[in-house]
Specification:
The protein has helices at about 30-55, 60-85, 125-130, 150-170; strands at about 25, 90, 95-100, 105-110, 115-120, 130-140, 145-150. With about 170 residues, the chain is of the alpha+beta class. It has two domains: about 30-85; about 90-170, Roll (PH-domain like), CATH 2.30.29. The strands form two sheets. A four-stranded antiparallel beta sheet has the order 1-2-3-4, with no helix packed on it. A three-stranded antiparallel beta sheet has the order 5-6-7. The chain is elongated.
Amino acid sequence: MSDEPAAPAPAPLAVRLDEDGAVPWQPVSPRLVVARSLVLLAVAALPLLGTAVLAALVTPWAWLAAVAVLGALAGGSWVVRRQVPAITWAEGPEELVIRKGRLFRSLVSVPYGRLQFVDLHSGPLLRRLGMASLQLHTASPASGGSIPGLPTELAEGLRERLAARGESQRAGL
């Protein structure tokens, strides 16, 4: 036995657990993979076209650069396919918890009483795919969070619920 004091246990999340005792994590839309892949393809298109033209007009050694761009595109596509399913969120009675990442994980807990406002963003590509992103703003920029790629109807409903919960819990301060 050691005379050292035991380390304090981490504070439990205030998220409601399901009947199995697990946190009911909600995934983002799988169409977010399509949106992010299209953006990745658009970013890689110009360097790929440039290296192909350079290879055709100047030197065939430029095909190595084109192959490198294709390799980077394939690697980026693999990362996107792994990254999107790792974005989940859970709505609890006192806080909204957002979990992201596989290798570098982050867990953000935003208490409803600290919410100042909730933004809903949807650019042309996300609107075309029926998705929106939710941005949570608190008094401290470090304690906010975002949930990308939610179906539009779900994002609008979640925004309304979060704004109402934030107002009701701030009223008690």
